[in-house]
From TrEMBL:
NCBIfam families: PEP_his_kin. Keywords: ATP-binding, Kinase, Membrane, Nucleotide-binding, Phosphoprotein, Transferase, Transmembrane, Transmembrane helix, Two-component regulatory system. This is histidine kinase. Residues 480-683 form the Histidine kinase domain. It is an enzyme of class 2 (transferase). It comes from Parahaliea mediterranea. InterPro entries: GAF, GAF-like_dom_sf, HATPase_C_sf, HATPase_dom, His_kinase_dom, HisK_dim/P_dom, HisK_dim/P_sf, Sig_transdc_His_kin-like_C. Gene3D superfamilies: 1.10.287.130, 3.30.450.40, Histidine kinase-like ATPase, C-terminal domain.
Length: 690
C-alpha cells in the first residue's frame, strides 16, 4: 500500500508539471523567461516521473533519482538567480558574461560529487557509510537552504507592485524547497528519511504547481499567450471543489461508521445524503457562485474582466440598438457595472437635454449642468458619487448639478468623449449587485463610453442633417416662390407704368386684364405649392412656337426688344406651359439685361435629331468659361446684387433636365452669349442619336 501511495503522489506531480511545461512550450517561447520556465517545469516532471518509476522497482535507481532531483533543483535555482540579478547591479554584471555559467556548473558538479562519491567509497571503506549518508543529506539540505535564501532575497527586495506578481512564485517554490528542508533536516537528525514524508513529497509538489501557474499568468515577461477561458476555469474549480467536498464528507462518514458499530451504517448513510443535499444547495446558490467568481477574478487572473469578450459583447450590443440610439446606448452601457437603469444627456440647441431615461423616471425641471461638462471634458474621469461624497478633494471639490438630487439612486457619471469633445453624459443608477468600482471598471466604462460617443455623435449629426435638409427644402421652395413673385411683380409694375399713357386704349385694357388674370392664376398656384410643400407640374401637349410667341410679346416692352424666328412651325412637346414659359422668359430677360439699348436679342426655334432646339442669342457683355462652369448654374449666386435671387438659371436647367432636355451655353466676353435649350419631341424619341 505505501508503494502505491508514493506512486500516485509522484505521478500527480509528474502530470501537473508536465502539463504546465507543455502550455509554456506551445505558447510562450518568445517570452524572456519562458525557456527557463519550460526547462524547470519539464525537469520537475521528469524528476517526479523517475521517482514514481522507482517506487515500482525492486531496486530503485538511486543514482538516477539523485541526478533528476539535482537537475530539478538546479533549474529552479538558476531561474531564481536570474530574477534576483535584475535587482542587484553587481549580480547582473556577473551574469552578463560566461563566468557565471562556469561557476554554476562547478557548483552542480560539486553537489553531484558530494551526493555520489561518499556512497561509492562506502563499498571500499565500510566505516564511511554513516558519514556518506550524512554528507548526502547535508548536501540536499544545503541546496534547499540556498533556494530559500534566494526566494527570501527576491521577495524582500521587490517593490510593492512587483510583490503582487512575485508572491505566488515565492509561495510555490517555498513549498518545494521548504518541504525539502523539512524532509532532509528530519532525515539528517534521525539518520534516515521518513517514508511517509517521502511519499507525501509528490503531493506537496503538486500543490505548488497551481501557485507557479498563477505567478506565470501575473508576469507579462513570463506568461504564455495561451488563453484559458474564465468560464472553463470557473466550472473546473466548481467541479474540483465539489470533488474535494465529497471526499471530505466520505472521510467523515467513514469515521462515523467506525465510532458506532450498531448505528454506524445508518448514521453514515444519513450523513452522506445530508451532505449531498447541502452540496446541491451550495452549487445552486447564486450568491456563493458570485463570490467564487469574484475570488477567481481577483486571485487567479491578471485582470478582473475578460476584455476580449466584454468588447465583443459590447460591440455586438451597440450594433443591435436599432433606431432609438440614445436608449440603446444606455441599455448597453449600464450592464457593464451590474446596473439596470440610467439617464443620457446631450447638448442640443446650446443646452443639455435628456435624450433617454432607461428603466428609471426622468427628473423634472431644468438640467443646468453647471461646471460638470467642462470638468468631464478636461479630466475624462468617471465620477463615483460615493467617492465624491466621501472625498470631494479627489474631484477638486467639483460642484455637481442640483437636479441630481431629484434622480433616483444616482451612482456613476460617465463622460462620453468623442475625439476631444464631450458628446454626452451618462448617469448610471446604483447597482444591486456591485458595491463599488475600481480602476478596471473605470477603464472599461471610459473605453466603452468612447465607442458609444461615436454612435451618439453620429445620431446627433444625422438628426441635425435631417432638420437642415427640411429647412433647406423649405428655403429652396421659398426662394422659388419669391423668384416667381418677383417676375409677377415686374409684369404688374410694367403695366402700371404704361397705364397713364395707354389707359384709353381698349387693346391695352384688354391686355392688362389678361395679364392680371394670368398673375392671379400664377399666384394661386404658388399658394397651393406653399401649402403642399412641393412644386407641382401639369404636363400638356404644347405648341412650342405659340409659347415662344407669348414670351417674346411679353418682353417686347423692354429694350432691346427680342425677335422671333420659327424655322419649324410644327414643334409640339409635353411640358408644363407655365414653367416652360418661365424658363424662356428668364433667359430672354437675362439676354436683354446683358445688352444695351442698341444690342440685339434673337430667339429661334428649330428641330435637331428628335429635339426641339430653342436658341436665344444676344450681343451683350458675354461670360468667361470659368463663370459658366462654376457660377452660372449655381443656386443663390447672383451678379445682380440685392435685386437678384441667383436661382433663375439653376431652376431653368433643373426643370428642362427634368423633362429630358438640357441647356447648353456658348459665350465670349465682349461678344455675346448663346443659350440653346434642347427639348425632347415625343413622337421623335426613337430617332434621337446616342
Amino acid at each position: 500500500m505505501p508503494t502505491n501511495v508514493g506512486l500516485y503522489s509522484y505521478l500527480a506531480a509528474c502530470v501537473t508539471f508536465g502539463a504546465l511545461a507543455l502550455l509554456l512550450m506551445f505558447a510562450g517561447r518568445q517570452r524572456p523567461y519562458a525557456a527557463l520556465l519550460i526547462v524547470a517545469n519539464a525537469l520537475t516532471a521528469l524528476w517526479a516521473g523517475v521517482i514514481a518509476f522507482g517506487t515500482l522497482a525492486d531496486y530503485p535507481p538511486v543514482t538516477l533519482m539523485q541526478l533528476a532531483e539535482l537537475a530539478r533543483n538546479a533549474a529552479w535555482l538558476f531561474l531564481l538567480l536570474r530574477l534576483t540579478a535584475a535587482q542587484f547591479a553587481e549580480v547582473s554584471s556577473l551574469l552578463a558574461g560566461r563566468r557565471w555559467l562556469y561557476l554554476f556548473i562547478a557548483g552542480a558538479v560539486a553537489a553531484l560529487l558530494l551526493l555520489t562519491l561518499p556512497s561509492r567509497l562506502e563499498d571500499v571503506v565500510p566505516p564511511l557509510g554513516r558519514a556518506a549518508s550524512a554528507i548526502g543529506l547535508g548536501t540536499w539540505l544545503a541546496i534547499a537552504v540556498a533556494g530559500l535564501l534566494l526566494i527570501e532575497q527576491l521577495f524582500r527586495n521587490a517593490s510593492e507592485s512587483e510583490r503582487w506578481s512575485m508572491k505566488y512564485l515565492c509561495l510555490g517554490l517555498t513549498c518545494l524547497f521548504g518541504y525539502d528542508f523539512f524532509l532532509y533536516a528530519e532525515g539528517l537528525l534521525f539518520q534516515q528519511l521518513d517514508p511517509n514524508l517521502w511519499q507525501a513529497r509528490g503531493l506537496v509538489s503538486t500543490v505548488a504547481a497551481p501557485l507557479l501557474a498563477v505567478a506565470i499568468a501575473r508576469n507579462s515577461d513570463w506568461q504564455s499567450t495561451l488563453h484559458v477561458s474564465r468560464h472553463v476555469v470557473f466550472h473546473s474549480v466548481t467541479l474540483v471543489a465539489a470533488g474535494l467536498y465529497l471526499m471530505a464528507m466520505s472521510v467523515v462518514g467513514y469515521f462515523i461508521r467506525l465510532m458506532d458499530g450498531t448505528w454506524g451504517g445508518v448514521l453514515q448513510t444519513s450523513f452522506m445524503v445530508a451532505a449531498g443535499a447541502m452540496l446541491l444547495v451550495l452549487l445552486f446558490s447564486g450568491k456563493l457562485r458570485a463570490h467564487a467568481r469574484v475570488l477567481l477574478n481577483k486571485h487567479f487572473f491578471s485582470y478582473k474582466y475578460d476584455y476580449r469578450e466584454e468588447w465583443l459583447n459590447f460591440t455586438r450590443a451597440l450594433a443591435d440598438i436599432g433606431d432609438d440610439v440614445p436608449e440603446g446606448i444606455v441599455r448597453t452601457m449600464v450592464p457593464l457595472v451590474g446596473s439596470q437603469a440610467g439617464l443620457l444627456f446631450a447638448i442640443e440647441g446650446g443646452r443639455y437635454n435628456l435624450l433617454a431615461n432607461y428603466q428609471m423616471p426622468a427628473p423634472e425641471g431644468d438640467f443646468d449642468m453647471g461646471e460638470l461638462p467642462a470638468w468631464l471634458e478636461q479630466s475624462e474621469w468617471v465620477v463615483d458619487l460615493d467617492e465624491w461624497d466621501a472625498s470631494p478633494d479627489m474631484y477638486n471639490h467639483l460642484e455637481l448639478p442640483a437636479w441630481l438630487q431629484r434622480v433616483s439612486q444616482p451612482w456613476l457619471i460617465v463622460p462620453l468623449i468623442f475625439g476631444t469633445r464631450l458628446a454626452g453624459i451618462l448617469v448610471i443608477r446604483r447597482s444591486d449587485l456591485q458595491q463599488g468600482i475600481n480602476w478596471e471598471e473605470r477603464d472599461l466604462l471610459k473605453t466603452a463610453g468612447r465607442q458609444a460617443a461615436s454612435h451618439l455623435a453620429q445620431f446627433l449629426a444625422q438628426k441635425a442633417l435631417v432638420e437642415a435638409r427640411q429647412f433647406d427644402a423649405f428655403n429652396r421652395l421659398s426662394a422659388y416662390v419669391i423668384h416667381d413673385l418677383k417676375n409677377i411683380l415686374a409684369q404688374q409694375s410694367l403695366m402700371v407704368a404704361n397705364a397713364e399713357k395707354h389707359k384709353d386704349n381698349p387693346a391695352f385694357v384688354d391686355d392688362m386684364i389678361e395679364t392680371v388674370r394670368n398673375s392671379v392664376t400664377r399666384m394661386t398656384r404658388l399658394m397651393d405649392q406653399m401649402r403642399s410643400g412641393m412644386r407641382d407640374s401639369q404636363l400638356e401637349l404644347l405648341d412650342l412656337a405659340d409659347v415662344l410667341r407669348t414670351v417674346v410679346e411679353g418682353r417686347a416692352g423692354q429694350r432691346p426688344a427680342p425677335s422671333l424666328e420659327v424655322v419649324d412651325a410644327n414643334l409640339r412637346l409635353q411640358a408644363d406651359r407655365e414653367r416652360l414659359a418661365t424658363v424662356f422668359n428668364h433667359l430672354v430677360q437675362n439676354a436683354q439685361e446683358a445688352c444695351d439699348k442698341r444690342g440685339e436679342v434673337q430667339v429661334a426655334a428649330s428641330r435637331d435629331h428628335g429635339f426641339a432646339v430653342v436658341t436665344i442669342r444676344d450681343t451683350g457683355r458675354g461670360m468667361d468659361a470659368d463663370f459658366i462652369a462654376n457660377r452660372l448654374f449655381t443656386p443663390f449666386d447672383s451678379t445682380k446684387g440685392l435685386t437678384g435671387m441667383g436661382i433663375g438659371a439653376f431652376e431653368s436647367r433643373d426643370y428642362i433636365r427634368g423633362i429630358g432636355g438640357d441647356i447648353r451655353v456658348e459665350s465670349e466676353p465682349g461678344v455675346g452669349s448663346t443659350f440653346r435649350v434642347y427639348l425632347p419631341i415625343p413622337q421623335d424619341k426613337e430617332n434621337v442619336a446616342a
